[in-house]
From TrEMBL:
It comes from Sphingomonas horti. This is Parvulin-like PPIase. PROSITE patterns: PPIC_PPIASE_2. The keyword Transmembrane does not apply. GO terms for molecular function: peptidyl-prolyl cis-trans isomerase activity. Residues 206-303 form the PpiC domain.
Amino acid sequence: MIGMVSNVTISKLRPTRWALLPLAALACAAVAQTGQSDDEGPSNGLNIPADVIVFGKNDPSIRKPTAIVNGDIITRTDVEQRLALIVSASGGQIPAEEIERLRRQVLRNLIDEALEIQEAKGNKIEITPQQIDESFARVARNFKRTPEEMAAYLDKIGSSAASLKRQIHGELAWNRLLQRRIQPFVNVSQEEVQGIIDRLEASKGATEARIGEIFLSSTPETEAATIENARKIMEAIKQGGSFVAYARQYSQASTAAVGGDLGWVRPEQLPDALANEARAMTIGQMAGPIPVPGGVSILYMIDKRQVLTADPRDAVLALRQLSIAFPPGTTQEQASQRAAQFAAATHTIAGCGSAQKVAEQVGAEMVDNDQVKVRDLPVQLQEMMLGLQVGQASPPFGSVQDGVRVLVVCGRDDPQAAQGPNAETIMAQLEEQRVNMRAQRYLRDLRRDAVVDYR
């Protein structure tokens, strides 16, 4: 499912130890030690002979885009409208050859969604139209639209308000069911929580990373094809696609519902193959495909920090921005000349007080923002801004299309010593992780018992 309704999403996929990592630092390792479950059955349990003869024909060119799930119909329109949501969330950057594979994944998601809604209804859990409409309105506000404007936007991209509301219905129903059937029976002891806190303190200063992952399961026989699929996904992301959107749709890890975000982890908490890559990655870098037990992974380095240590990038800056735009038709040479004049003028800035005068001289637009975290700036600007003193201006940056900007530091609030997660936060995260693991098994059982007629 896509990320448009993240406030009601529960993770529910791959049951491997190292993929279930929502806790900071050593919290993940503590859970990993107890996370091995009976989900991981023997790979040879079916006793399939080495030499087989296939009776009948399976034509991969014939697709079945619709299904009846325990009597509930999923139509081609349902699939196409949900597919349009995902394509839009990816900025329309999905290669044409990937669309068919994505369409099949959407159908699987819709089948799971139908099973979740049916199971909730069977447990006398009803989601009212008003609750769905309220969630839809929150999504619309996230897009800075009214519900009516959001509905019009969805129609424009080939989807519909009904499709998104169906997704909201499924997630609300599944969450409510888990709250009733699973959460009351999940327990975390104070000793477990205290053990995590003690280990966090002991590891103070160690480097940890916030990593995104897309995991694609495979067998030895399908590994080559899976690696090729992973390469195609990486290429699409490099061409401007959203890592989060691809993770939500393609990843078979439990973290798919949160865009592949593993949370804050130390490299040694990951399998060796992933740990080796993570240690060498820089912020914003992607690595893969990486063979791991059960499949292959794609990693994305979201951020890095040191455990319980103040991060300079958490400094809050008061900035004054001066910017100039180029009229349509401006050539690169003309833009370079204008940018050079702008750079010469802004080089004379000596404090925010003089920035106003310089802006008037060069015809620049001026905007102030006194609550900018360094880590929220583009990666290319972060180190540069950390090196500036109050009153200094950055070198000009920009492009012919976007214009040229200069940032003047008017003030700085340096970060205080970092604080680790408190006991309540750790306990809540451990409980959520265990709920997610049981939810995965619950959904697996629903799939096993379902009657699904493909049309």
